Amino acid sequence: MSATTTPHPKGTAGGNRRRRRGPRTWLAALPLLVFTGLCFGIPLGAIAFGAVTRTDPVTGAVQPTGEHLARSLQGPYLGSLIGSVQLSALTALVGGLLGVLIAQAVVTSRSTALRNATLTASGVLANFGGVPLAFAFIATVGISGVVTQLADLGSLGWSLYSFTGLTVVYLYFLIPLMVLVIAPALDGLRPQWREAAQNNGATAGQFWRHVGLPVLAPSLLGGFVLLFGTAFAAHATAAALVGGSVPLVTLKIADALSGNVLTGQENVALALGLDMILIAGLVMAVYLPLQRRSARWLR
Amino acid sequence: MAAMTPTAADTAEPARTPDAAPHASAHRPRARPRVWRGAVLALAGAYFLTPLIASFVFTVHVPGQGITFEAYTELLAADGFTESLLLSLGLAAATIALSLLLAVPALVAVRIGSPRLRPVVEVMCMLPLVVPPIALVTGITTVLRWGPEHLSRTPLYQTFLAVQNEDFPVVLVLAYTVLALPFVYRSLDAGLRAVDVPTLVEAARSCGASWPHVVLRVLLPNLRASLAGAAFLTLALVLGEFTIASLLGFQPFAVWIVSISGAQARMSVAVSILSLLITWLLLLLLSRAGTNPATVSSAPATSRKES
């Protein structure tokens, strides 16, 4: 794994070796640390600071306050947080299930070409969110979209610019993401296990219940959490598509930042940003241990 | 990799005809999985291909007029197309240069002399994944507002104005570099893992190579694939980035697409298709470059173009 040599106790012969390599190698890492400290640390600090303080516009006095965070958890802001969580949970669940189905179909097929094509396409599609995706869907199933006209979806009550519409669009990049995450785990289900289960008289259902799912559980959960985080942070697609008719926290933040700013709006935007970071941090805190756990089976 | 072990299951497989009736035996009926597999893949193919085909039809077929390729031919002359594309490309080049200049020395240093710094560097590079771009923007706008408010009498103020220059917003380069660091880190880390860095460095140093020589002529050639990977991912990220640029009030490519969508719907879809194809080509090239696409893009991150 690690390409580093064994650490030498200082002052032994190993010390010379270190010196010969240049004792100040850590200086090379300094620019990176300084850069992230400045360009990432300061904005983060500004978010945290602005979210919990109030600056008096006249005197410039700074007081700590909880009102911004409280406001970000009330009324329309709370509605947008809930909307985002609902949309993310739904799309992560559906996308996860469909992704597993597709990955299983590909992994169990004997065609290497199909497998490689699917994985490559997934790698590409998982990165295809944002503005172009929104416009592709507007051209397809928007009000005057090609498929809408052909199939007369409008009369069926279909609207792209709604919660359901957003769900369909988000799945376009979430399903491929799940395929990428879960395919290695499905590969890790060794055929020998299935045979062993069969030889012991297990049905397919029993195999999945007692062997397959327990082994896959960390990967499945990890994939779900990752999809949730991705959908939760997405902004460009929703902004280009619905522009605010669906309450989402990312759109609310954008409104508060760019709209006709009332006093204190910026601070509520910061508080919402802090809420998002906390939720995303929670997502990562769940995802990383799960990923490590699932790595056990991927040897 | 694939489940292709020649085991009892393969030899005891029933006839490969999909319609082989499942006979009453202990064998798993093979007919059903084949049907569901075909159905799943067909449905998936339909879902993923329909928007692409329909978008193309939308751009070339005008109801009542027939087929026209105007949306594509008028692109180059469109107002703002070249400016925004050049701006995006310039930003991408600067972002790639900056992120590699920061990450390569740090990662190499961690490998050869300061292993204890490793967790620090890793956390610093991975942290941006936890902060959604939209949240980062709120912080950036707040910091930029400090300029006129608090620093107007200090030399720093000039810097604040300079980074927000319309022609080449440096502030975007800084923000994109932060966003790109996780991907750059992953790509380079995977590349370095495949190379025995300490041995290479020792060998080169023993032969009397200077430090710059070691890095430029010994290490970097070994990292070619992962450097290319990092550069491609960053390019895709910058070309598609919308959130930060639009909220800070600049107009690179993605923001321009949205700005014309109202007046020229057909053209905005045409540009979307083109930008999509370009991104795909880039990523396909990347997966051809010897890196496994699955390892590169399963990065736990908000999808690169999704911002």
Rounded to the nearest angstrom, the distance between the terminal CA atoms of chain A is: 13 Å
Which chains make the largest contact? A-B, 117 and 117 residues
**What strand order characterises the main sheet of chain B?**
1-2
- H and E order of chain A: HHEEHHHHHHHHHHH
SS content category of chain A: mainly alpha
Q: Which geometry of chain A do the CA atoms define?
A: globular
The tally of helices of chain B reads: 15
Rg of chain B, rounded, reads 25 Å
Q: Which oligomeric form is depicted?
A: heterodimer
Question: How would you describe this protein?
Answer:
The complex is a heterodimer of chains A (about 300) and B (about 300). Chain A is an all-alpha fold and about 300 residues long. Chain A has 13 helices and two strands. The radius of gyration of chain A is 25 Å and the shape is globular. By secondary structure, chain B is mostly helical. A two-stranded antiparallel sheet of chain B has the order 1-2.
